[in-house]
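Hello again, I could really use a second opinion on something today. I've been staring at a protein lately and its backbone has me curious. Please have a think about how the structure follows from the sequence. I owe you a coffee for this, so here goes:
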Amino acid sequence: MTLLITVAGKGFALATSDTRICTKSGSKFLPIDENFNKHIVFRSGGLVGDITYTGVAQWQTGGRTIRLYDLISDSVSEASRETLDFGPLVKKLATDLSRRLRGRSLAGPNGKPFVEIHICGRHESVPIPFIAVLSTFRTAPPWNFEQELQWDLDVGDFKFFLLMADRPEVIIGGMDTVVRLEERQWISNAVSAGADAFNTSRMCSRIIQAASSRHQLVGARSVAVVLPEVGMLDTNLFDGLDDDLTAFFPRIAFASGSYLGPSEFKVDLNLVADGHLPQHSLFFKSVIERRWKKSIRRRMFRYRGGKKIPSVMGLLGLAIFGKIRDDYIDFGLGDEDADEQQLSN
């Protein structure tokens, strides 16, 4: 059971999850992977979003291991190829999962598999971010604030909740019972006051790390993915420092129907040393926070000279194409068929 924290902030949508998956042995849960990616980024029609999930992660059928991660990826990849917009995409996802998840071995107390999916992102026709929740067990809307543009519907075996966030919102899913009330209030107050994506991701990481000490189903390691109003997709997960820096990348479903990753790649900091950090940068702000003391970090975060230092998505484009796009539109997922084809190969 994953802990999810999904945020619609001022100028960004952000999803954070821990990276542990467990198996049940008798009455105990045993970690089997501490580094499992649970993010699927996609682009379909006018929609760009990030999917995270919690609940039944994998199971055995006919001697084969079936992973929820792959089922979601396949469904969204097909939707992207068909350029489905939000409503048809969610209906397809819920229908596909309902069909594949039915079975006594996966059923929870309500007779349905224990699964919840969070989707956050933006639509080109709407000037504000959205958060959507597909859940087999949640019965009431998860929102902290009553807003004008919110809906709840039944879709297959799932209850569907949608919010177009005209004010900041934070929802916590999965192992939410191990998150304390003061932690919920802390992050909600900060996001409502205008916290940027980096500081929001730091708060999410601290909450997840604290929750991991309270329950074995939650891992201490976490990853955040941000889709900013202006800028490219970015993540905060990396290993190493200096000349041995490795960036990690979520799975991406492209409009062609193919998908890339999850993956990792080496980063040469010398290639991107001259410039300034975008407001909602995650990767380089996370690296800088670990490498330098507070007074130096503050100056680096405030510097506004030169070009924008790229996000993880920009770094991937730099590694493949030898250049960084300057327009910073569509989160870096690509309008151009040639770019998308090269990234997918």
Q: What stands out?
A: Residues 244 and 266 are 7 Å apart (CA to CA). The longest helix spans residues 86-101. The chain has eight helices and 20 strands. The longest strand covers residues 47-55.
